[in-house]
Design brief:
CATH class of chain B: Mainly Alpha
Helix content of chain B: over 70%
Number of strands of chain B: 1
Largest sheet of chain B: none
Number of domains of chain A: 1
CATH topology of chain A: Alpha-Beta Plaits
Order of helices and strands of chain A: EHEEHEEHEEHHEHEEH
Radius of gyration of chain B: 21 Å
Number of helices of chain B: 11
Helix content of chain A: 10-25%
Distance between the termini of chain B: 17 Å
Strand content of chain B: under 5%
Strand order of the largest sheet of chain A: 8-1-10-9
CATH topology of chain B: Formate dehydrogenase/DMSO reductase fold
Structural class of chain A: alpha+beta
CATH architecture of chain A: 2-Layer Sandwich
Shape of chain A: globular
Structural class of chain B: mainly alpha
CATH architecture of chain B: Up-down Bundle
CATH superfamily of chain B: Formate dehydrogenase/DMSO reductase domain
Largest interface: A-B, 58 and 50 residues
Oligomer: heterodimer
């Protein structure tokens, strides 16, 4: 079994329901995200549109974070999930430096690395990840990539524009997108300008977990 | 290149929170800088032993002690950079051998242990395990410690290579840069430590190593600066931070001048004038500038948004 995720960006409406569900389910601390939705505005007024891209750990088959972790805190489990053992993590941030998707952060409360685990604890109880359950338009499709009859496999068979982020890195992500353009997947395809962010002054907790 | 579509798409990120900022900051710079001096001194001591062992007499103890101190500075900053420093022992009890961090931690620990033995032998001057003579034992051990110093110097390049997200750091160039940083700072350190104890011939020898290391490292940086952008889009975006009005452009050039260009020029002047003050200045500049160069190259890939 190799579990994978697919997000149909034609369906995603940027409600951030998945983001909130993830925060609640995994008790993700303030100022950190296991899953977040990126907004990119495209075009020039009045011909403009807003695109939404949920971003989470890609659970790569050839995961750089797993390779660089000096203590195997990041490790594969049998279903292909790249899991993390926070009790073993020494907080060297090697994984943060290695992940090409910027999906790993240092938890300000535990001072250890953390990231999306595809809700491995829920899957162990035969439940779907929290973000899948929360999505009101079923844009998140989750399942076994090894099973040709699974929802995700059928979805990939039915859609020709299945893509991954940064395929050139050779990480073989188990996280796919349908209906994505470069603007969604390539960080260099859009500008980041001061003053254009919907939330310009986002509070970040200092490492230690408390406001100064 | 995707960057050229920006004019057409006018795509602007209006909501995203890139998770990490600069995660490996000056603690890691200190780590690399101190390690370069620590292993570099061992390389130079070994070269001196092979070239002119009679000049080793006053240098064995101070050089190995300074190297040992710098290696401990390196280990201290490595530990301080961990968010869970009290779990450092996990590296030894749960080692993951695909990680250059693990391999490096083991090698560096053995290296520092051997240096401790060498320093203790020279200080105590008593009977040793290998021979009855401390100096002889030191010289025998120096060969093996020098061999070990090579992978200890290189493993940081391995870590940078395993940092898949940072396209700028490639193993072939980083490994050469690590060795050159060690020969640059090692030769500079031994020039400063040796002072008047070194003969003119030996000073010339170490001055040549200093100048050549600076030249080769500078050539590699300039090659990356000029040609790196022609290969990969990410590298282009990263190098923009050290070009033109880039955030780190000034610091980058300060580093190149202080670590490489000025020491090269001063070594040239020294060979003409034979002035020890000029050589001392070249050595000090090389050691100070190396910190700046390493810091800039460490930080700039971390400025690029990954999402």
């Amino acid at each position: 079994m190799q579990l994978g995720f697919l997000v149909d960006l034609h369906l995603c409406m940027g409600c951030k329901g998945c983001e909130i569900a993830c925060k609640v389910e995994n008790e993700v601390p303030l100022s950190t995200w296991r899953l977040r939705v990126k907004y990119v505005d495209v075009g020039t007024f009045p011909e403009t549109k807003r695109t939404f891209t949920p971003l989470r750990c890609n659970h790569c088959e050839n995961a750089p974070c797993e390779r660089i972790c000096p203590v195997s805190a990041l490790h594969y489990i049998e279903n292909g999930i790249v899991n993390i053992d926070k009790e073993r993590c020494i907080g060297c941030a090697g994984c943060v430096m290695a992940c090409p998707y910027g999906a790993i952060y240092i938890d300000p409360e535990t001072q250890t690395a953390d990231k999306c685990t595809y809700c491995a604890h829920r899957i162990a109880s035969s439940m779907m990840p929290a973000c899948v359950v929360a999505c009101p338009v079923e844009a998140n499709i989750f399942g076994d990539l090894d099973d040709p009859k699974s929802n995700i496999s059928k979805y990939m068979q039915d859609h020709r524009d299945v893509q991954v982020r940064k395929p050139e890195k050779g990480t073989n992500p188990h996280h796919f997108y349908v209906g994505a353009s470069q603007v969604n997947l390539n960080p260099l395809a859009s500008r980041r300008e001061e003053g254009y962010n919907l939330f310009n002054k986002i509070t970040k907790l200092p490492l230690g977990g408390h406001h100064e | 290149m995707i960057h050229e579509t920006l004019a057409a798409t006018n795509a602007v990120v209006t909501l995203d929170v890139p998770l990490p900022d600069v995660f490996w900051g000056w603690f890691v710079t200190m780590n690399m800088w101190a390690k370069s001096i620590g292993t570099g001194l061992v390389f130079m001591l070994f070269l001196l032993l092979r070239k002119n062992s009679s000049e080793m007499s006053g240098l064995r103890t101070p050089a190995i002690i300074v190297s040992f101190i710098m290696m401990n500075v390196f280990l201290l900053f490595t530990l301080a950079d961990l968010h869970q420093p009290f779990r450092m022992w996990h590296i030894f009890f749960y080692p993951h051998w695909t990680s250059a961090i693990t391999v490096g931690a083991w090698m560096a620990t053995i290296f520092v242990g051997l240096e401790f033995v060498m320093a203790a032998m020279m200080i105590r001057k008593d009977k040793c395990l290998l021979t009855k003579n401390a100096t002889e034992s030191f010289d025998k051990l120096l060969f093996w410690v020098t061999l070990l110093a090579i992978p200890v110097t290189l493993y940081t390049a391995g870590i940078m290579a395993e940092a898949t997200a940072r396209e700028l750091w490639q193993m072939p160039t980083e490994s050469v840069q690590m060795i050159l940083a060690a020969t640059l700072s090692g030769s500079a350190a031994i020039i400063l430590l040796g002072g008047s104890k070194l003969s003119d011939e030996t000073k010339n020898f170490f001055a040549s190593i200093l100048g050549l290391s600076a030249l080769l490292a500078f050539i590699i940086y300039m090659s990356e600066y000029i040609f790196g952008s022609m290969k990969a889009e990410e590298v282009t975006a990263i190098l923009a931070y050290v070009k033109g009005d880039g955030e780190y452009a000034t610091m980058f050039w300060i580093g190149q001048w202080v670590a490489y260009i000025l020491p090269m020029a001063l070594v040239g002047l020294y060979r003409v004038s034979k002035s020890n003050s000029i050589l001392t200045l070249a050595a000090i500049l090389a050691i100070a500038g190396l910190w700046v160069v390493k810091h800039v190259w460490l930080v700039i890939p971390q400025l690029l948004p990954l999402s």
